[in-house]
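Example record

One chain of 704 residues, shown exactly as stored in the release files.
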Amino acid sequence: MATKKVKQKLLIVESPAKAGTIQKYLGKNYKVVASMGHVIDLPKSTLGVDVDNGFKPRYITIRGKGDLLTSLKKEAKKADAVLLATDPDREGEAISWHLAHALKIDPESNCRVTFNEITKNAVKEAIKKPRPIDMNLVNAQQARRVLDRIVGYKISPILWEKVKRGLSAGRVQSVATRLICDREEEILNFVPEEYHTIDVKLKDRKSKKTFSAHYYGEGDSETKLTCYAEAQTVVDDIKDSEFIVLSTKESEKKRNPQPPFTTSTLQQDASRKYSYQASRTMQIAQTLYEGVRLGGKLGTIGLITYMRTDSLRISEDALAEANAFLTEEYGEENVRTRQFKAKKNAQDAHEAIRPTSINIRPADVKDKLTNEQYKLYKLIWERFAASQMAAARYRLTSAELEANGRRFRANGAEVVFKGYMNVYVESTDEKETKGKVLPVLEKGDALICTDIDSRQHFTQPPPRFSDATLIRELEEKGIGRPSTYAPTITTIVSRGYVQRSKKQLIPTELGNVTTDIMKSNFKDIVDADFTAKMESGLDDVESGDEDWIVLLEGFYPDFEENLERARKNIEKIEIKDKVSDVPCDKCGRMMVYKLSRFGRFLACPGYPECRNTKAIRVGTGVKCPQCDGEILIKHSKKGKTYYGCEHWPKCDFMAWDTPVKDEVCPECGGLLMRKNGRGAKIYCYNEKCSYERAVEKDDKHEED
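Predicted structure tokens for this chain:
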């Protein structure tokens, strides 16, 4: 009797890491392969959009993906069924649509599979419920792609001709650059105003406790002190005076926890707490989503849900699991199950970012994760756990005091019920959780003043944007979507419109010049409200309320008029390259700074006669332990900082840890290195020497 042939299914995902994780869940009846992202896209060499015939895009196989596509076709022919399981968003839907056409799969058949988390149950449940490809999602992606292509490929040649070759304009990147340039202009034009504050330290005679109070004004009206003379008059009036308690007040305040993370809030918090750039946060989150090998019963599992989302929704299963776990861990009184309301424009297809199982505690998997993975997973886990806990309660106390007619106020706060703070303390809570408790005061009490602190201040300009604050601004203004925040910042920095100084984003001359041109000639493209309106239009395409061709037809005529006007009106602007102090070793000219997609470098200004280039040398002032050359700061292709000898490749010294300057090993006189992150320490580079010590506050180190 012939054995029944087992049906073989092909499942296509985007990344090899995800493919490996899912293959373990589905077993031998499935073959899971990766498309490595997009396989088909618009051509790079031409516009690839027929603007005169309904904005029809011309798609081609991406260069270098031909062999991969051929391999996918072969696998599809061998399979009894093909399922497309690319990421659950617009971009993923478009990849599946392109694959369906390339592999001759009917897009209207049940070929599309999506899952919000990569766990065995989630994947197996998704496989049981395939659906047709959602053309509304595909068309929203097509509209964005075509819109961005038209803006970029039509404006960029004008910038090349009028300003500098190699420049580019982008629909979202141009607005982000403008925000940074406008903020810099605010800072430059800011006029500081002087003001003074007076704080006093007071001692309660009964309890002997001391506390602080700040100057408020005269009577019930607040008075601002605008100069030294005004402040000194107050100081003279209260000097040697008793402070009398006029009134006291006590109240209780509740503070609810923040919702679980969305893409933007995760990027903001990781930036504030760990100084991670947005792109770095997303790279780490991607590895947590695609699967981590934990071993034991858990095997390989995705630790977090899909990380590109602006939804705050939480599945009922996750809520029930959290409730049970937190009740057992912290007691029923500390738990409160909640759903959070998302912002108006949020896409609710996904959940918020949360752990796939709250039962997998960060401490339990710490030894299976890299330091970065652990920190980000802990942040996500704690934020989600806290979101399902009871509000914290504070006892607030205040007292109004008077000395010689001058009014002062003192405030105290004390946490009386921690609630969610048992798990996670937000940055906004930190001051209050430290507690500033006032002694028990009664009306008429006389207090002793032990110190008067009068200080001069000046109002400060608005701060420059960081990754975190720019992302918040983009989100609040409705510019871009979760998948675009990190790439937008990466693009404007790599193109030289913006530079980083520590955490700050500062516009370059090139960024300012380009923004001025865009404001004068393409005001809609760099207008935040217009860009937000376009984003809303793309959302309407996704929901089926707008036709994507109609959306583009509404945009293009005015844009084309602006293009023609710009070609005629923009005068040529020359931005000179900054000259370095490094002479060209081939022709003697002083080399200039240039920018490529790999970063800044030195080039001879005599190009094309002289084509000499050099990497920019950044020294550490530390001698190489192998050859006495200088150790230089270098960067890998992925942008990670490392340290190498100036005589490379003759000398092969290389280290990821930081060389310590102006100090040698006290035991052997060798090079000291500093290891950062988990297990931070100072240690001797000499393998024969065992010297090491913990990192102290006095150990100087500049974060890269």
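Notes: Confidence is low (pLDDT under 50) at residues 700-704.
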